[in-house]
Write a structure and sequence with these properties.
Length: 242
């Protein structure tokens, strides 16, 4: 029996201004535990909308999402988000805060409102430093993220997602705007999380070559529909541009 951690059934979503023009239009897919899957497609195809819908950032018009066999609803959203780390395009960091403080922000979802008044315990700070060290950023712990390079900022964002010990990591265009070296560093980090720690990763990408190098499976979205779902190795033969 397959161990699905993400299941999407007949997803349809649209923005308020265009309810008669679905962004997602009947999406069905399942992702198994430990898979590295990339979402590909042209700008506006719906791939980022699909990714964001998995954690309730884009509401559904109809359909159902299950994460670890739990149906996504307003009541289950907080618990589901504790199991899912999210990387936003550009990192989504608070630029005025240090790398260390940004990483610690990833622990806020595990705290009650009154606990935040007392700051972060020593164990959280030690874990944040350990994650920064693992990602080659220990020396930048006290530096404002606004002073870091794009690649360094994205790795801080990865550390922020990892501090909540997620089972699933969603990455929305994690290498957009980065130079070649920074792209390699970020993708290698994601690859190591997958191969060494067995983490389930779903990433929105634009580059077929990078997708084929790091992921086993690709889902290609076009006009809100899935037009390909299969091995990355077969992509080049079927799609010249996505």
């Amino acid at each position: 029996m397959r161990d699905y951690v993400i299941e999407c059934h007949n997803l349809e979503t649209a923005y308020a201004a265009s309810l008669n023009r679905p962004i997602l239009n009947g999406i069905n897919c399942q992702i198994e535990r430990g898979e590295f899957v990339v979402l590909l497609g042209l700008n506006g195809a719906g791939k980022s909308t699909l990714l964001r819908s998995l954690v309730g950032l884009v509401p559904l018009v109809r359909g159902e999402i299950q994460i670890n066999s739990v149906t996504l609803t307003p009541r289950t959203l907080a618990a589901i988000r504790r199991d899912v780390g999210m990387l936003f395009q550009g990192g989504g960091l608070i630029r005025q805060l240090s790398a260390m403080e940004n990483v610690l922000c990833g622990r806020l979802g595990a705290k009650t409102s009154w606990q935040t008044l007392f700051g972060f315990p020593k164990r959280d700070r030690l874990l944040a430093l350990e994650l920064l060290e693992q990602l080659g950023l220990r020396e930048f712990a006290d530096q404002k993220t606004s002073q870091l390079s794009g690649g360094q900022q994205q790795r801080v964002a990865i550390a922020r997602a990892l501090i909540q010990s997620p089972q699933i990591l969603l990455a929305d265009e994690p290498i957009t705007g980065l130079d070649v070296i920074a792209c390699q560093q970020v993708m290698q980090t994601l690859s190591e999380l997958h191969t060494q720690h067995g983490m389930t990763i779903v990433a929105v990408l634009h580059d077929l070559g990078i997708a084929a190098e790091y992921a086993q499976r690709a889902i290609v979205v076009d006009a809100g529909r899935i037009v390909y779902d299969g091995p990355c190795d077969n992509l080049q033969a079927q799609f010249s541009q996505v």
